[in-house]
Amino acid sequence: MSTPTDGQNSYAPGWYPDVNAPGTERWYDGNGWTQHTRVAGGPNAAPVATAAPTGAAAAATAEKKPWYRRKAIAIPVGVLAGIIVISGIGNALSGGGDRDTPAAGVKDTPAAVVDEPEEPAEEPEPEPEPEMVAVPDDLVGMTADEAANALIRVGLEPYYDGDDDWKVLEVDAKGEVEAGTEVTLTLDEPPALTLAQENAIQEAQRYVQVMPFSRRGLFDQLTSEYGSGYEDADAKFALDYLEDNKLVNWKKEAVEAAESYLDTMSFSRSSLYQQLTSEYGSQFTKKQAEYALEQVGY
Predict the structure, then answer these.
(1) In the predicted structure, residue 200 carries a pLDDT above the cut 70
(2) Which of 46, 78, 188, 241 has the smallest number of Cβ neighbours within 10 A?
(3) Same-domain status, 167 and 229
């Protein structure tokens, strides 16, 4: 038999399950629920009827009664189960009592990671422009020592393999290059000297250290039988060696000769000129003699 519900009074009086007190039954008298209860499955006897209030007292009593006593409502077991299921679904949808506990079988979805924008990399500072210097263009023909000093003065690094007095044949750089660049000098290695050549060079150097000589006068001194007596070829080699290695300056020799003559005796300009250029005198060239006269005040 179905449980009576609100608005229905066609059910027969009897004991019906009390949904508000599981395991008990409440008496339905055909019009509404009574206060009579019993343990479920008790003897099927009707409770003793009590006098119902009338008039205003009955109305007041009806207003104060709870819903399950004002109406004859009996909720079937199937409907009650449905309510429980629906309540469970609603509770699940609303997150239940503990929002931090995930439902069984449901994996936590990690929060999306928001990549922060990377700061732009700092631009490297531009490298300064290299300093450029000009390679001297007159290095060929200099001695290695002279060329090296010329390169150092402009901020370049010289490199050569040989003696300082060897002549420069070739330079591996020209024009403008970066300061500090190594510049290689190719040198002219002189041939091995003979003993006569070595001695002629040494004796020629000693002569010009003692007194002033022109090239011609020094040649005569080296080759004369009253002088050193060297072969002409050896004497010429010695003079060329002195010139090539800038061990002698004929103009300076002429100035020293003019000063020496004037220290000994008085000379006019023309007589001093003759003394400097004559084959019986110092044998300087005309240009060398003119230079010497200008230097001494003539």
Answers:
(1) yes
(2) 78
(3) no
Q: Long-range contacts: 235-241, Cβ < 8 Å, 24+?
A: 235/200, 235/204, 237/197, 237/200, 237/201, 238/197, 238/200, 238/201, 238/203, 238/204, 239/204, 239/215, 241/197, 241/201, 241/204
The residue range of the domain holding 252 is 195-296
User: In this structure, is residue 115 part of a structural domain?
Assistant: no
Torsions phi, psi of 130, nearest 5? -65, 150
Does a structural domain hold residue 19?
A: yes
282 and 216 in one domain?
yes
Which position has the token pair 């072969």?
231
Whether residue 168 is found in the same domain as residue 224: no
Amino acid at the residue 194: T
- What is the mean pLDDT of the segment spanning 46-65? 48
Burial string for 160-188 (b: 16+ CB within 10 Å, else e) reads bebeebbbbeebeeeeebeeebebebbbe
pTM above 0.85, yes or no: no
